[in-house]
Amino acid sequence: MNIKRGRPRNVEAEHAILTASYNLLLEIGFGAVTVEKIAEQAQVSKATIYKWWPNKGAVVMAGFMYAISARLPIPDTGTVFEDILLHATNLSRFLTSREGEVITEIIGEGQFDAKLAAALREEYVRPRRLEARQLLMRGLERGELKRALDIELSIDLLYGPIFYRLLVTGDGLDDSIIKQLITGAFEGIKQERG
Predict the structure, then answer these.
(1) Are 46 and 101 part of one and the same domain?
(2) Domain range for residue 45?
(3) Is 150 in the same domain as 108?
(4) How far apart (Å, rounded) are the C-alpha atoms in residues 101 and 93?
(5) 168 and 81 share one domain
(6) Prediction pTM value
(7) Quick check: keyword Transcription regulation in the entry (predicted)?
């Protein structure tokens, strides 16, 4: 049994903190955001923030995830190819939006802040991988994918090129590129029809 200790969070204060951290992130960028600025904008004390989050990176990541949770729904079109294509397209559109630019800022800052990198992996990367896993598992159950498919490796194959283009090459990410990437990857993972 998991017993929670201490007083529960004040919902209004939590909302104010998360909203303030997200708004500041978009306005001034991760590097310029401070716990002091978040506290001032949310009209709470720094102690309140530190009571709920261990550092700036954690509260900023929580604010970011709070704001974008509805932006990346899990599709269910009836076919795994269309589900993954829609999911990857939505992810690409998000990553190339102003909000998505925050991810690249956080990835960059995470190279110098291990706690921020861990928060990014836990709060953003892991949930996206679980979504992709869910989509691929549905495809396996429907017999659309190879039975011996390595799900984790397939996730890397499908989504890795998006981040590679975004973070390494700087090449464009539009809907037609995503369709080419997903179509090419599916050649290796789809169930062959006999």
Answers:
(1) no
(2) 11-67
(3) yes
(4) 11
(5) yes
(6) 0.76
(7) yes
Model confidence pLDDT, tens digit, residues 46-103: 999 999 998 888 898 888 888 777 677 789 999 999 999 999 999 899 888 887 888 8
Domain match, 62 and 95 both: no
In this structure, the answer to whether residues 30 and 122 fall within a common structural domain is no
